[in-house]
Amino acid sequence: MATIQDALAAAVRHHQSGNLAAAARIYRRILEITPEQSDALHLLGLVARRAGQGGTALRLMIRALRIDPAIAEARLNLGNLLRDQGHAAGAAAAYRNAIALRPDFAAAYENVGGLLRGLSRPADARDAYRRAIRLSPAGSEGHAGLGNVLQEGDDLRDAVASYARAIAIDPTHMAVCNNLGIALRSLDKTGAGAEAATAWHRRAVALDPYFAAGYSSLGLALQELGRLEDAAHAHARAVAVDPGFAGGYANHGNARLNQNRLDEAVTGFRRAVAIDPAGPDARRNLGMALLVGGRFEEGWREYEWRLRCKDAPAQAAMPKPRWTGEPPDGRRILLHGEQGLGDSLQFCRYVPLVAARGGRVILGVPAPLKRVLAGLPGVERVVSGQLGTDDFDLHLPMLSLGEVFGTQMDTIPHRVPYLSAEPDLVARWGERLKGAAKDGGGLKVGIVWAGSPTHGNDRNRSIGLAPFARLASIPGVRLVSIQKGPTEGQAANPPGGFPLLNLSPDIKDFADTAAIMANLDLVVCVDTSVAHLAGALGVPVWVLVPFAPDWRWMLDREDSPWYPTMRLFRQARPQHWDDTIDRLERALRERAASLPLRQNGASDMPILAPVSWGELLDKITILDIKTERIADADKLANVRREREALLAVAVQADTARPEVAVLIDELRAVNTTLWEVEDEIRDCERAKDFGPRFVELARQVYHTNDRRAALKRDLNHLLGSELVEEKSYQAY
User: How much is the pLDDT for 596?
Assistant: First the structure.
């Protein structure tokens, strides 16, 4: 007849082989015969835990320990159950008790390490894992756990070494294979890391074809290698094996977004949000995808989740209330930068609007922007660094201004310039640039070839100096380096020795860059803060945009609704710039050829006719309307060329003043009405319909033109125009 110990041994064999149902039956039979059998209680508790019956497991474990308090393994497993249920203090006490019973209990130290890691106590977690390794050098879990802590602390080389030791002990440890791949990818950003990572991720999913996180990691590595379709398939496999894997759907959305497959990206992000509505990363990325597609209302709302992401700026949490758009009633509102320098330059355009609502605006921005933003209309004070909490009443991250103002595509505050360069600096840099133009004429073109290397997408947006060599060979073009940062030294020795005026070493901050731009004819740059500065100044700027663009550049357009003087040159294929540079070179050759290199006679002279400010701004508003309504590519190119030329003159006027800005907006509305009235009159003419509607439209023309003339007159008065256009009509 079998003894209790024989039955227990049989149950343990079933348990270890994975036949939990058979093991549980025997454990229960033993307890029917001997209710106080502590081992059966303990082990049945483990079966209950595996079945997701945490409460039952906890009761069984506590019963076992009441009968035999000296079972170290039961103390360990009690700690695991308490940790499962969020009772960190109870779990820690249980692990300590297990170690007190067995000081050489390596598994207890491993679990202490895991608990401390979850409590964000990395130093203590490292100590616990190292103690486990000393007690059991051949145990893979100690090395694996130490690798996890080291990786989370960005100690990547040591993390890789720990993972390698764990795999040497247990080559079938799929989670370690996966984590080793992640560490290698983070350690080496040249592409070699992603290649090595891909092999380890493939090994992880080969060990377990249902390892969803492994497929997702594989997708991320492939994405980094530019194999976007393969990456999307890997992410699709992740959610196929685990339909509840929110991160897998989000990663699939990111892969599709990088392919500019916007609808599929939005679908992926929405599925991730449906599974995990409180997950901030998927919601932020959904917001960016919607903004790329011009769906601003929902896009701004979802983009607010960026402030809850792990990489959210420290200023996202403030001790003062957040401004939500209510009347400020003279309260001081701190608008603070939160991401890159370009974001602050783009969104400071809202400052006059905040001031117009009655807010006293304090701008909190990085030091390099302080001088250039000091003259922004509506700003009371510009600060960098710490600001006392008594110095402001409300706050708002600057990128939240779009959501607060309910900005739509047709209501973007796009009037430029809204920033201006300091006149003294403009004159000083002008002296440096006097000899820059070739043959006394031509184009002075400022160039920037790289953004900040810490930017997450810098590898895709920065191109280096070498591609600009062919622009330097264009007749009539003189290149000027306004590059700052780690790569500015390249300007001292351009590849192939092409001619380049190097101003970079003497540029102290963005105020200097703005003053240089005021003396240039054009800026050509990659997607970096310089593009935003040029756009804010109303300087003509051509931007090289990666295939998968930042949300603000949207898709399938050569212009920007944010900056009227900007032209976008998009990458046709990921990581291939040759076609883009070809198009930019052709455009620059055409532009240079349209300007006379030598002004020898009347036929070579550009037409420079003085006009009133009102007339100039009227013409610009008409060109604004044409850029929105003309579809023919050749005509649109001519319109943009004319508009850029006029805007280059208009930057001399203070058009950002609120009273001037209102009149410009009204003038644009009047000209839009005239455009539409003329279209309808032509429809009547075509139909030979000269009835009441035709008469009404004809009358509307001269009434609207009278309003247009009044607006131009008011603009001339406000801007102090020396020339004043006069009208003389018979009264009606």
Answer: 56
Beta bridge partners of 566: 541
pLDDT per position as a tens digit, 184-200? 999 987 788 899 999 99
Of 515, 513, 436, 538, the C-alpha closest to 477 is: 436
Nearest-10 Cα torsion for 306, 310, 316, 318: 150
Calpha distance 158→147 (Å, rounded)? 7
pTM: 0.78
3-state secondary structure 17-71: HCCHHHHHHHHHHHHHHCCCCHHHHHHHHHHHHHCCCHHHHHHHHHHHHHHCCCC
Q: What is the pLDDT of residues 467-480, one digit of tens each?
A: 999 999 999 999 99
Contacts of residue 721, defined as CB under 8 A and 6 or more positions apart, other chains included, come to 612, 613, 614, 715
How far apart, in Å, are the Cα atoms of 686 and each of 680, 681, 682, 690, 694? 10, 9, 6, 10, 12
Tokens 């001031």 correspond to 355
Return mean pLDDT, the chain.
89
* Termini Cα distance of the chain: 122
Q: Which residue has the tokens 């990489």?
A: 311
As a whole number of angstroms, the distance between CA 518 and CA 537 comes to 8
Q: With CA atoms as reference, report the closest residue to 344 among 321, 322, 373.
A: 373
> Environment class of residue 576 by beta-carbon count within 10 Å: exposed (0-12), middle (13-18) or buried (19+)?
exposed
Residue 592: phi, psi to the nearest 5?
Answer: -65, -40
Q: Pull the structure tokens for residue 596.
A: 């006379």
Structure token pair of residue 393 = 């009443």
